[in-house]
Design a protein that fits this description.
The protein is an all-alpha fold. It is built from one helix and no strands. The chain has one domain. This is Preprotein translocase subunit SecG. InterPro entries: Preprot_translocase_SecG, SecG/Sec61-beta/Sbh. It is a single-pass membrane protein.
């Protein structure tokens, strides 16, 4: 039987990834702001659907 060479990677936080360490550009939004913005966009789209006639 052939030997299988197992190459293992060094342990890095037991599989946990820390995404918050990287700072990105752009606006910082809370989850509440995203939900409110989505709801407002939906209301505007529905209002436009009923007010614009083709």
């Amino acid at each position: 039987m052939a030997k299988k060479d197992k190459k293992s990677l060094p342990p890095s936080g037991a599989g946990l990834v820390r995404y918050f360490e990287e700072e990105t550009r752009g606006p910082k939004l809370t989850p509440e702001q995203v939900i409110i913005g989505s709801a407002l966009l939906g209301v505007i789209c529905i209002a436009l659907r009923f007010t614009v006639s083709t």
